[in-house]
Every structure is written in C-alpha cells, then in structure tokens.
C-alpha cells in the first residue's frame, strides 16, 4: 500500500478533529493507522494544533450551513438525532456527510448514508425525508 500524502491526511484531520490529539500523542501509531509516513506526520505536527482545530470548526460550521440550506428537513432531523444519540452523532460526523465539495457530491453521500440506516423509527423518517429532499432538489434543478 502506498503511503498517503499530506493533503488526504490533512483533510482527514479537518474532518475529524479528534485525530489531532492522536497525531500529537502517538505519531508513529497515527502514521501506521492512517497509512502515511513519518515525513507527512512531521509536516502535520508542525502545524499549530489550535489552528487545525479552528480550521476544522470553521469547516464544520460552513458545511452544516450548506446542509441546512440544501436539505433543511433532513438536517433538522439529523441534528435532533445526533443530540439524542451519541452513537448516531459519531456516525454522522465520521460519515463525511458534512465534507466539502459540490451539492451533487454531498447529495450522493447523503443518499448513501440513508441506505445504511435501519428502516424503523426516527431513522425510517430520516430515510424518507432524505429521499424526498433529494427528489425535490432534482425537480427544482431540472431545466424547464
């Protein structure tokens, strides 16, 4: 397996700020776990951890706004479920739902995430909301 470069590992740190502590706490284990090498780890460790955390927080805030703007009902339910269920919150954060990119790419990740949810209770409602909002977006975006 080829070692991952600087950019992909930096993106992972920004998507999951909890990894910043791992990077600084045990650099060798971090490198092994994330498929990178010592040079990349040294470059990442040279970045001020406070700046990494701030950048990650700003990125998350922007991406959550992006989701609420494009998928308001799904976003509201996801946020409610995440407040009530720590496992669900962790799954959402690590699923990359709020990662950057185009709205179409985000919509594909949201649809893929919906497919992993159980078809019962609040997650069934979430699956249906996501499907509706994806269809609604497609209809709105379709040329007249």
* Total of helices: 9
* Global structural class: mainly alpha
Helix content: over 70%
Largest sheet: none
Beta-strand content estimate: under 5%
Count the strands? 0
Q: Between the first and last Cα atoms, what is the distance in angstroms?
A: 48 Å
Give the mean pLDDT. 81
Roughly how many Å is the radius of gyration?
17 Å
Shape: elongated
Uncertain regions spanning at least 5 consecutive residues:
none
Oligomer: single chain
Q: How do the SSEs run, as a string of H and E?
A: HHHHHHHHH
Structural account:
The protein is mainly alpha-helical and 144 residues long. It is 77% helix and 0% strand. The protein is built from nine helices and no strands. Helix 2 (18-25) crosses helix 3. The longest helix is centred in the middle third of the chain and has 22 residues, at 49-70. The termini are far apart. The model has no long low-confidence stretch (mean pLDDT 81).
């Amino acid at each position: 397996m080829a070692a991952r470069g600087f950019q992909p590992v930096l993106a992972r740190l920004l998507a999951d700020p909890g990894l910043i502590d791992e990077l600084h706490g045990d650099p060798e284990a971090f490198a092994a776990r994330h498929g990178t090498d010592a040079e990349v780890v040294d470059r990442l460790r040279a970045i001020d951890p406070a700046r990494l955390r701030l950048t990650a927080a700003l990125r998350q805030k922007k991406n959550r706004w992006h989701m609420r703007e494009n998928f308001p009902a799904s976003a509201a339910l996801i946020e409610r479920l995440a407040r009530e269920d720590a496992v669900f919150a962790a799954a959402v954060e690590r699923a990359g739902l709020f990662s950057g990119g185009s709205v179409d790419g985000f919509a594909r990740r949201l649809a893929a995430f919906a497919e992993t949810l159980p078809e019962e209770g609040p997650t069934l409602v979430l699956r249906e909301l996501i499907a509706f909002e994806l269809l609604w977006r497609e209809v709105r975006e379709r040329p007249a």
